[in-house]
Input
Amino acid sequence: EDKVVQSPLSLVVHEGDTVTLNCSYEVTNFRSLLWYKQEKKAPTFLFMLTSSGIEKKSGRLSSILDKKELFSILNITATQTGDSAVYLCAAPNNRKLIWGLGTSLAVNP
Amino acid sequence: ETGVTQTPRHLVMGMTNKKSLKCEQHLGHNAMYWYKQSAKKPLELMFVYSLEERVENNSVPSRFSPECPNSSHLFLHLHTLQPEDSALYLCASSQVGPDPLGYTFGSGTRLTVV
Output
């Protein structure tokens, strides 16, 4: 059965820290991996990764995919309280998006 | 707003009530989705409409009834719900194709069944 597993499930850090969130996957006919940030309600799209080893970057956030080891990481540097959210990882198979449980990140001042 | 608008934002209903959730997308996408998000569970796909045709129904109880009158609008009709149906209901849209970009989600409807 296709699955996406995220770790850790929750994380508490202080402002300025760097965090690494993990997402491993076993998905039939893998094509891409997606990262979302969910603050209060709507998950908002962060990155889509399709090629192994190519880092995608947006400000303090970056992500990379390893198709050989079947995982992706999301890095956040110099964290701010506004980064507090649930970070979701998902990958489509032939029929639908397979979602992880998410990592709940709390950034304390 | 993300381009996908959901109403209402919050809904409290009794088990004998009938209500509807509405979703509208302004992105020109050709697929729309209903998801259920419960605490400590992954997002659960409920229904998929692609080109206004329902293409997926993931063993959802019949007390949930979707409707997609056109590619921009999606409804979820609710009747005789149970307390365990209380959850965040998210609508999403995407463009279906060989390389689909990520979904765009609405802000969700927080449903409480009493």
User: Anything to note?
Assistant: The two ends of chain B are 29 Å apart (CA to CA).
